[in-house]
């Protein structure tokens, strides 16, 4: 992935929202509206890295979600967004996972690989609040 004018592979100031991120945000926000928080806090969705589509299945954990996927995907945990998400946030999330996939293809198809977790400081920095 090419670097932006600020020298980053993933930059919140230069992010361009794609239809994949808009799709992803719509699905996540719909699930938040239609499911109880008790169900969502334990669940996750799998989104494909290339087009942001999902099978709309609420999985109990990352391992199960990845075991049902054919193409590389990211696993989104609802506990990270009780108030919903924006398309911009989803684009940043997609870009981070795409970059990680390009650098380590094996980990993104292996259910035993760890989740890509972004610290609160990192998330605030990417949003341009710090």
What would you note in describing this structure?
With 130 residues, the chain is mainly alpha-helical. It has one domain (19-115). The protein is 38% helix and 8% strand. The chain is built from 5 helices and 2 strands, in the order H-H-E-H-E-H-H. The chain has a two-stranded antiparallel ribbon. Helix 1 crosses helix 4. The longest helix has 17 residues, at 87-103.
| Sequence stretches where pLDDT stays below 50 over 5 or more residues | none
Largest sheet: 2 strands, antiparallel
Measured as a percent range, the helix fraction is: 25-40%
The chain-level structural class is mainly alpha
Compute the number of helices. Answer: 5
Range of strand content: 5-15%
Record field, number of beta strands: 2
Q: Could you tell me the mean pLDDT? A: 82
Measured on Cα atoms, how large is the radius of gyration?
14 Å
Taken from the alpha-carbon principal axes, the silhouette is globular
Cα distance spanning the termini:
24 Å
Number of domains: 1
Order of helix and strand elements from N to C terminus? HHEHEHH
Within the largest sheet, what's the order of strands?
1-2
């Amino acid at each position: 992935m090419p670097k932006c004018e600020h020298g980053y592979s993933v930059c919140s100031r230069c992010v361009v929202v794609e239809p994949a991120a808009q799709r992803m945000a719509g699905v996540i926000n719909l699930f938040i509206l239609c499911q109880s928080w008790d169900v969502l806090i334990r669940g996750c969705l799998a989104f494909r890295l290339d087009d942001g589509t999902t099978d709309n299945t609420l999985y109990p954990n990352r391992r199960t979600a990845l075991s049902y996927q054919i193409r590389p995907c990211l696993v989104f945990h609802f506990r990270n967004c009780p108030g919903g998400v924006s398309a911009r946030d989803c684009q940043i999330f997609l870009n981070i996972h795409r970059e990680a996939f390009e650098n380590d293809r094996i980990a993104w198809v292996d259910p035993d690989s760890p989740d890509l977790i972004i610290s609160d400081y990192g998330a605030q920095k990417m949003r341009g609040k710090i």
